[in-house]
Specification:
- With about 240 residues, the chain is α/β, with parallel strands linked by helices.
- It has two domains: about 5-35 and about 150-235, Rossmann fold (3-Layer(aba) Sandwich); about 40-150, 3-Layer(aba) Sandwich (Rossmann fold), CATH 3.40.50.10090.
- It has nine helices and twelve strands.
- Helix 7 (about 175-185) links the parallel strand 10 and strand 11 (about 190-195).
- Helix 7 (about 175-185) packs parallel to helix 8.
- InterPro entries: 4pyrrol_syn_uPrphyn_synt_sf, 4pyrrol_synth_uPrphyn_synth.
- Keywords: Lyase.
- It comes from Thioclava litoralis.
- GO terms for molecular function: uroporphyrinogen-III synthase activity.
């Protein structure tokens, strides 16, 4: 058995490349295998309601901007720093949240006024932000601009997960966790799973014989720290 673990990266290709570069910059030089479990498919809407935009995923920014190119300058509430940067580059006036949809909802309630608010989103939501805003008396709408198409792991990924070499897997969303657990072989390699949130960790709890840790915050930098710690732990054991 190889004493060094292998990284399995399961996000869409661009996000995998960006996270791998961050890991390399932080000194994590383990071999890596990319096997996206989600493919982003744009769903261009016909129209958009008036109001502030709300982005709880960076994946929503590009398809929205492509569908409504004349809305640059509109205020956009963004779940975290990375989403805010993508939205800023697309020309929106961003407000940055603390990294979780629920926290962004509370920020909007405290600072955003009566609305309306347009949650630009995909087909799978970890938190019903529009429902929360409506329950608090705000005007809010959901505008779906993409869907997450599940992907079967590659043959190389399944072989890795069926082997004896330890595998480190950062997991960034409940949807990815669901797909990962669906295709995970029953007799799997030693697993070290890094969950970006407690919600993701709960989705992974059904995985037998796996070491699971939760990131201290919902950011890429914190996930890099977590993966460094998991890498050390996997070698030590």
């Amino acid at each position: 058995m190889d004493p060094f673990p292998t990284l399995l990266l399961t996000r869409p290709a661009e996000a995998n490349a960006r996270f791998l570069a961050a890991l390399r910059a932080a000194g994590v030089t383990l071999s890596a295998l990319c096997s996206p479990l989600i493919e982003i498919e744009p769903l261009p809407p016909a129209n958009c309601p008036e109001g502030d935009l709300v982005f709880t995923s960076q994946q929503a920014v590009a398809p929205f901007a492509a569908a409504f190119p004349r809305m640059q300058g509109r205020r956009a509430w963004c779940v975290g720093a990375r989403t805010a940067e993508v939205a800023r580059q697309a020309g929106y006036a961003v407000r940055v949240g603390a990294g979780q949809a629920k926290a962004l909802e509370q920020q909007i309630l405290a600072e955003g006024g009566a609305g309306p608010f347009v949650h630009v989103c995909g087909d799978h939501l970890a938190h019903d932000l529009v429902g929360g805003l409506l329950a608090a008396g705000r005007q809010a709408f959901a505008l779906q601009v993409y869907r997450q198409v599940p992907q079967r792991p590659t043959r190389q990924a399944l072989a890795l997960l069926s082997g004896e070499t330890p595998v480190l897997v950062p997991v960034f969303s409940p949807r990815t966790a669901q797909i990962f657990t669906k295709y995970l072989p029953e007799n799997h390699a030693p697993l070290y799973l890094g969950a970006i949130s407690t919600t993701v960790a709960r989705q992974l709890a059904a995985v037998a014989n796996a070491h699971i840790e939760v990131s201290r915050e919902t950011s890429s930098a914190a996930m890099v720290e977590l993966l460094k710690r998991l890498a050390c732990r996997s070698v030590a054991t």
